Automatic annotation (TrEMBL):
Keywords: Iron, Metal-binding. Pfam families: Hemerythrin. This is Hemerythrin-like metal-binding protein. It comes from Verminephrobacter eiseniae (strain EF01-2). GO terms for molecular function: metal ion binding.
Length: 168
């Protein structure tokens, strides 16, 4: 993770362009623990809204995202603590690092550096699938197993990827 106010806040090697990736148009991020899935749906909607916000709407979109991220990460941190989830430190640390990045961009936007918002949104879209796959999914399994006595069952639609027709 780079510093909170670097141009690439989540620390990936470059922003991914386009917002049609495996996120809102895809069920792949559903993990089977409904309260977490709801938080993720809201989080992704707000990240997409930030990515598409015109300059005059960037500050409000970023504030809404920060509020949501604080609730989202706080809920997961609390679930981990309350259920004695093993090896939770790196998951909690990752939430804190992402929150610092968001807050760093909030400070830049407060100084009218609106261009800082789009790289943040891109970085969050790049970061989220891996975080959900490796950290959130383990927590969802743990919580479902504790509460229901079994691993979550996830029903996903089968969505074929779009393949552009060959030219000519
Ligand atoms: Fe999450
Ligand atoms: Fe998480």
């Amino acid at each position: 993770m780079r510093s909170a106010e670097s141009s690439s806040p989540i620390g990936h090697d470059g922003p991914r362009r386009g917002h049609d990736g495996p996120h809102l148009d895809h069920d792949g991020w559903l993990l089977g623990y409904a309260p977490m899935d709801r938080l993720h749906e809201e989080f992704l909607a707000l990240v997409h809204a930030l990515a598409q916000a015109p300059e005059h709407a960037v500050a409000a979109a970023l504030d809404a995202l920060a509020l949501n991220a604080r609730a989202h990460f706080g809920a997961e941190d609390q679930w981990m603590a309350a259920s004695a989830f093993p090896a939770r430190a790196c998951h909690i640390d990752e939430h804190a690092a992402v929150m610092r990045s968001i807050e760093g961009v909030q400070r830049r936007v407060a100084r009218a550096d609106f261009g800082a918002a789009r790289p943040l949104a891109d970085a969050l879209l790049q970061w989220f699938p891996g975080h959900a796959d490796y950290l959130d999914s383990a927590l969802a399994h743990w919580l479902c197993k504790q509460r229901l006595g079994g691993a979550p069952i996830v029903l996903r639609r089968r969505i074929e990827p779009f393949v552009a027709p060959a030219a000519g």
